[in-house]
Automatic annotation (TrEMBL), chain A:
InterPro entries attached to this UniProt entry: Hydrogenase_HupF/HypC
Record protein name field: HypC/HybG/HupF family hydrogenase formation chaperone
Example GO BP: protein maturation
Family: Belongs to the HupF/HypC family.
From TrEMBL, chain B:
Name of the molecule in the record: Uncharacterized protein
Highest classification ranks of the organism: Bacteria, Bacillati, Actinomycetota, Actinomycetes, Pseudonocardiales
Organism of origin: Lentzea tibetensis
InterPro entries noted in UniProt: DUF6390
Pfam families: DUF6390
Amino acid sequence: MCLGLPAEIIGPHEGHPDLMVADIAGVRRAINTSLLDFPPESGDWVLVHMGFALSLMTPAEAEDARAMLNIMAAE
Amino acid sequence: MNGAQLFVRYAYPPNSLGYCGPADSAALLQYGAAGVVDPGLVELARGFAGAWPYLELIASGSGISDPLDRRVVEAYWVGTPLLDSLRLGHIAASMEDRFRPRTGLQFPHLVESVLAGGVPHHSFHVFCIYPWVGLLRDDRKATAALTVLDRCRIRWGQVESLDGDRALVRSRPLVYDGHDLAFGPPRVESALRSASGLGYLGELVPGDWVSLHWDWVCDRLTTRQLGQLRHFTLRQLDITNHRVEHRGAALAVEHG
């Protein structure tokens, strides 16, 4: 029922080396980055689904995705 | 129980984990615990951008005006004959209107799944739309993918015992043999039925059959509901295993 969400990496999470803190639509959450080929860095954008970062996104792709989500929220 | 309250029971578990829906999961739990339905709850439900279009599709296709009508909500989460009453043409047209802008490059895959017999049941979204089935073929990602698929589908099990906020439930998890998804041997899992005493289930007793979503018990199931949930889940697994191709993570919704 849930959609992939763009998230901006804030930094490492203290709880587990696979976890990082990310900003998802203004809310900071722990996400699992172990499925990415390389660990993301602070400021990177990733596509998050069910708590896992699945791929890196360019800032433009993240902006497009956020715009789509805003349109859907306004419907 | 009305449809909005039933929606809360199934939507709260992933919402509480931050996976979907509005940020205020505490409000959703409060609504569920209080049994209240008001415009605030309807707004929260509309904020589930993944589920809401399916509710709209089922409602419009069956001549029901309210997407939160009990018949619609139960059809989406559990499954009812209402799903088979939807005309293929309506599903296809509705998918075009409601899902093409939201699924981008994944839309043809969605249509393929509908033509293979998919209906707007939650299992359709989990197994046909999400990227996780495609990730099962990647050894490095298969374990995580199988876990997500199993936790995200609506599964069923029988209560063995109760302990405070938790219930021990016997159920059969998904397994993957490298080709097909199936159900493995029964195992007992610990699931939440309340948080610090706050919940929406009421009385549970050992022997009850229940539905589960992520780490929560959602609802007690009648024999009819148990049969329907099993029927629509198995049907979707057959489509997933044998009738459609699955691609990889690049097809995640909202990206591409």
